[in-house]
């Protein structure tokens, strides 16, 4: 099974934060740089995301609505149901992170890649990822404010203002300037991809440094982490089954069911990490832990499913055009998914 190299970098960053957490003036500098990095990340997201591609896919509106329902309705309901596991199986901070995981948007790059591998509807996967990213900019913070209340990062009007200024405003600025800078972003997507990942590593380092300084990691035991992994495995299994057989019940053809399964069962690490940093503040380290674990789990499981679906004798040969579109679209997504 594949192990995302970026996960190893994230874990290494966590290790550095544990050994050498930022303190005092260094922490202030790291916090300011992290805030700027988050704003820049969402500016790049806006500059990359093609609204035209999303609008061109409106003819598959039933499929896209179903993906959004899986991402922002079914997932959160499972997260709310997991509340019954506190405090016997999960601690309250881990549960808050688990619930936040269920609220973030779907991935872009990995959904497209797995859909292509499984010979699904690649253009629909491109649009589904775009719609989820667009709506998630607003839906995730609002859902978090509503469902998490004051227990996570102390949500308030000030928190929502920070969300608007750090996430929504840069994203909209990127969309508005896409007409002029879109070509530059496409030509330099590899370099900007490295900037993307470096910015997220900075966000992770800052969040976990704050957690180490405040001693919140003493709340997590190996047994609790093991329980968290089991709970996440159950949630992923439920969503994979729900999207596949639910798509069949709704009358979607095989190619669309593949898109629904891969786009509707995954969560975006790239979008979730910066959002958690803004929403949870000093508690972000525990909040992002479930998302980091789930990210690697979904990649491993979906890689196996996609490979098996690619050998399905009932599968039709994928025409070359969608594959080319996939390569183009990957540049519009984020490498970490």
Key features of this structure:
337 residues; mainly alpha; 14 helices; disordered C terminus
Describe the structure.
The protein is mainly α. The protein has 14 helices and no strands. The radius of gyration is 19 Å and the shape is globular. The relative contact order is 0.20.
- Could you give the count of β-strands? 0
Shape: globular
Written as H for each helix and E for each strand, in order along the chain, the element string is HHHHHHHHHHHHHH
Give the termini distance in whole angstroms: 17 Å
Strand content: under 5%
How many helical elements? 14
Question: What is the oligomeric state here?
Answer: single chain
Which structural class do the helices and strands define?
mainly alpha
Radius of gyration: 19 Å
Average the pLDDT over all residues and give the rounded result: 83
Protein topology:
Elements: H1 5-19, H2 24-48, H3 51-56, H4 61-81, H5 92-101, H6 109-117, H7 122-147, H8 157-187, H9 189-214, H10 222-249, H11 254-264, H12 269-280, H13 284-310, H14 320-330
Helix pairs in contact: 1-9, 2-8, 2-9, 2-12, 4-5, 4-7, 4-10, 4-11, 5-13, 6-7, 6-11, 6-13, 6-14, 7-8, 7-11, 9-12, 10-11, 10-13, 12-13
Brief sketch in words of this structure:
77% of the residues lie in helices and 0% in strands. It is built from 14 helices and no strands.
């Amino acid at each position: 099974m594949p192990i995302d190299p970026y996960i190893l970098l994230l874990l290494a960053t966590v290790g550095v934060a544990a050994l050498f957490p930022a303190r005092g003036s260094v922490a202030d500098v790291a916090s300011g740089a992290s805030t700027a990095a988050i704003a820049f990340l969402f500016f790049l997201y806006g500059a990359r995301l093609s609204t035209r591609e999303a609008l061109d896919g409106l003819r598959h509106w039933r499929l896209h609505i179903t993906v959004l329902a899986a991402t922002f309705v079914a997932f959160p309901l499972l997260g709310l149901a997991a509340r019954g596991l506190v405090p016997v199986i999960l601690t309250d901070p881990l549960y808050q992170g688990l619930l936040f995981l269920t609220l973030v948007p779907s991935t872009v790059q990995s959904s497209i890649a797995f859909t292509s591998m499984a010979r699904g509807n690649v253009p629909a996967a491109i649009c589904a990822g775009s719609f989820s990213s667009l709506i998630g900019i607003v839906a995730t913070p609002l859902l978090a404010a509503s469902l998490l209340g004051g227990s996570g990062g102390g949500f308030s009007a000030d928190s929502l203002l920070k969300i608007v200024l750090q996430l929504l405003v840069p994203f909209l600025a990127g969309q508005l300037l896409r007409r002029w800078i879109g070509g530059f972003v496409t030509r330099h997507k590899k370099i900007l991809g490295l900037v993307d990942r470096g910015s997220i590593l900075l966000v992770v380092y800052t969040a976990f440094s704050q957690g180490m300084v405040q001693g919140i990691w003493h709340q997590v035991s190996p047994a609790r982490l093991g329980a968290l992994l089991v709970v996440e495995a159950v949630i992923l299994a439920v969503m994979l089954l729900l999207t596949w057989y639910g798509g069949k019940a709704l009358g979607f053809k095989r190619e669309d069911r593949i898109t629904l399964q891969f786009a509707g069962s995954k969560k975006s690490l790239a979008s979730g990490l910066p959002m958690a940093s803004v929403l949870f503040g000093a508690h972000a380290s525990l909040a992002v832990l479930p998302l980091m674990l789930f990210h690697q789990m979904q990649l491993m499981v979906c890689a196996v499913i996609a490979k098996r679906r690619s050998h399905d004798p009932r599968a039709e040969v994928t025409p070359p055009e969608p594959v080319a579109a996939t390569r183009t679209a990957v540049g519009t997504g984020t490498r970490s998914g």
